[in-house]
Each structure stands twice: as C-alpha cells, then as structure tokens.
Amino acid sequence: MAKINQNYLKLQGSYLFSMIARKIREYEDGHPNARILRLGIGDVTQPIAPEIIRALHQAVDEMGQKETFRGYAPDLGYPFLREEIARQDYQARGCRISPEEIFISDGAKCDCGNIQEIFGLENKIAVCDPVYPVYVDSNVMAGRTGEYDPAAGKYQGVIYMPCTAENGFVPDLPKETPDLIYLCFPNNPTGAVMTRQALQQWVDYAVRNDAVILYDAAYEAYIQDPFIPHSIYECDGAERCAIEIRSFSKTAGFTGLRLGFTVIPKELETSGERLWPLWARRHGTKYNGAAYPVQRAGAAVYTPEGRRQVAAQIAYYMENARIIREGLKSSGYEVSGGVNAPYIWMKTPDERNSWEFFDELLERANVVGTPGSGFGPHGEHYFRLSAFGNRETTQEAVERIRSL
Ligand code: PLP
Fold first, then answer.
1. 399: part of which helix (H) or strand (E)?
2. 322 shares its domain with 254
3. Atom 8 of ligand 1 has which residue's CA nearest to it?
4. Of 43, 289, 362, 401, which sits 20 to 30 A from 82 (CA to CA)?
C-alpha cells in the first residue's frame, strides 16, 4: 500500500491567503454591491514594461523559425542572462560573484522552498517571526521540524527570532545556535531593512558558527537608501556562508511570467563539502530550465531602456507606499516599513487582534489587508498593507481607513 509523507499532515490547515479569499467571498455573497479594495496579497498590478514585452515578442518569433528555434535551455540558465546579472547586480556593487555562480529558475518561491533539500535533516533552522511562510512550511514537509504547537503558534524544533518594534523588526542574534538561517531583507511582511553593519554582524556570526544564511532578496529593487545593502555579498566573508535568492516578480512584474535566480558561490562549503555542485546536480535532475522567451525578457530588464522603465514602475509603487504610510501616520496609526520596501506594517488600533481588525476593515471600509498573525505569533496585533495596488485604489483605500 502506498504511504504518504506524514510530514504533510503536520502542516497547518489553512494557508493565510486562502482564508482571506474565503472571507472576501463570504462577504461578497452577503453584499453583492460592495466594492472591495484589495491591499492584501502581494501581487503586482502594473503591466510589464514595453521594452521587456518587445524582447519577449522577439524571442517568441525566434522560436517559430528553423534557424533560431531553441529547445531545452542550458541547465543553469542562458549565459546572456547570467552574465548581465553577475555584472550589473553584483560586480557593479563590488561583489565577487561570477556568472557560473548564478542559477536561473522560474522564481524565488521554488528556490526558497527547494534549497533546503541539499541540507541534512538534522540541521536546525532559524527564521524571523513574523516570516514569509514558505521557509518554515518547506522544512516541515521535509521533516526537519517537530509537531506544530497550537498554543505557541510554532513548530517544535525551529528557532523563531522575534522581530518587534523594540528591535526595529530586525532580529537579534539567537541564543541557541542554528545551522541554517533564513533572512529576508527588505522584509516581507514588515517592510524593515537591514543596515550593512547589521548584516555584517550576521555574516560574521554565520562564519563563526559554521552556519549557512539563506538570504531572500526578492525586494532589493525597492531599496531607496544608498547605505542599505542590496546583496548579502556586499558584506565581507559572505561568499563563505551565504546563498542569495532573488526574483524578477516584484522587480519587473514577472509574477505571471516566472523568473528568478539563486546565487551559490563556488567557495561556499559546509561540513567540508561545496554546496555549488549539490545545487547544480539538483537543478540538473529536477528542473529543465526557465523558458527561453522569459529568459530573454529577463535580460531586457538589464538594458538601459529596460532599467529606466522598471525603475519608473518601482517609483510608482513606492509612491503608493508613501501615500499609505503618510496617510495612516497622519491619522494616528502606528506604521513602519514602506520606505525601502513595498510593504507597510501597521499596528492594529487598541490592541485588536489581527483577524478582528481584518474583519472590521472588510465590513466597515470594504478594504482588505493581510493579518500580521498569519506570518507568525509576533505578527499578532499587526496588519500588512501592500503598495502593489494601482494609484486610485490605494488612495481610496487609505481614505476609507482614515475615515473609520
Ligand atoms: N520571497 C519573498 C519574501 C516573497 O514575498 C515572495 C513573493 O511574494 C517570493 C519570495 C516569491 O517570489 P516569486 O514570485 O519569484 O516566486
């Protein structure tokens, strides 16, 4: 008889966004004329920039011609894309990353979820609390955690690092030493960023303790402050302790096209083994590459015109972030984030719990956000608003919240 992977049964039932969708559906059933404004789920709303669409069309046309048709992509991605990433995202910032160290994929979620496969089950993971749920869930599926403790809202055997107003939503070094450390900055959900000095502390800590940092930089394009690092490899010694994961989703609106990459420096070793060949083997065995037209579209992001158009799109979203942040602040709400990140982290008024506030906002303002408690116990009494809406929706949603 076929047996299932019992670890899947440890996963907590309702995924945050399906619960939100259900609540919206139920409200709409009872109020068919309601015009609900969504500042919840972190999907983008602006169409893909024209220069990228042009490259995509051209690559699609190439696929229809005998002379230019392409079949399977190289396992680790096309050199034309990997070279631009290495040059513009890393070498231009002084990072010693070469094209061979970049693995192209169809997005950061897969990489964030899959990367744990190359590490032993005995490794102890540390995550921020609140946290993007994929890091913990993928480790639960693999069997790297214990049971879920409903009273604590945590899985046993995981080191949760509280991110609170007191520490500026940047975790302190944990008391118990982890083997794998998930960090994500600019952060989803809090919108917090890490200074170079703070990130250097984490790199030094990882080197000292033979730990590996899994650094999710999916939102690096939203950094406005020149003193905030875009990559962990801007820190000394990071090539010896860190893997970085990036996405084209929020940088260039590829949530529906799918493109991302993972950087594994060739010198990165743990327990005397290099990690680069393991991920290369995993990629070659389980993955057949991102589509050629999508990789061409990705390369167009790095052209001068592509860069200009993508920067304009990011500026548009960051103006939304400013409207949300300042609009709510001026009405007395306690908010953070939204300066170097597209997320605004808002304290719920009068210590209301996150889901209560969700229901109240839905019912009284017809506005949807994301309850902070869905990202971990320390997200309780917080609420995430996203800057990825269009301008009119964002302005109206802020006005509705202000008028509550
Ligand atoms: N990492 C973080 C922190 C995210 O918030 C998201 C998407 O919301 C992802 C990764 C997934 O990105 P992708 O669309 O490339 O799979």
1. helix 391-402
2. no
3. 42
4. 43
**Threshold 0.90, pTM exceeds:** yes
Ligand 1 pocket check for 247: Cβ under 6 Å: yes
DSSP string, 164-193: -TTTTT-PPPPSSPPSEEEEESS-TTT---
260 lines ligand 1 (CB under 6 A): yes
Ligand 1: atom nearest CA of 187 is 3
Pocket test for ligand 1, best of 105, 111, 112 (most atoms within 8 A of CB): 112
Output Rg (C-alpha) for the chain, integer angstroms.
21
What is the span of the domain harbouring residue 389?
12-47+305-403
Show pLDDT as tens, one digit a residue, over the chain (404 residues).
999 999 999 998 666 888 899 999 999 999 999 999 999 878 999 999 999 999 999 999 999 999 999 999 998 999 999 999 999 999 999 999 999 999 999 999 999 999 999 999 999 999 999 999 999 999 999 999 999 999 999 999 999 999 999 999 999 999 999 999 999 999 999 999 999 999 999 999 999 999 999 999 999 999 999 999 999 999 999 999 999 999 999 999 999 999 999 999 999 999 999 999 999 999 999 999 999 999 999 999 999 999 999 999 999 999 999 999 999 999 999 999 999 999 999 999 999 999 999 999 999 999 999 999 999 999 999 999 999 999 999 999 999 999 98
- Cβ of 107 closer than 6 Å to ligand 1, yes or no, is yes
7 within a domain of the structure (yes/no): no
Which CATH number is 293's domain given?
A: 3.40.640.10
Residues 61 and 128 grouped into a single domain: yes
Domain contains 318:
yes
Ligand 1 atom nearest to 260, measured from its CA: 15
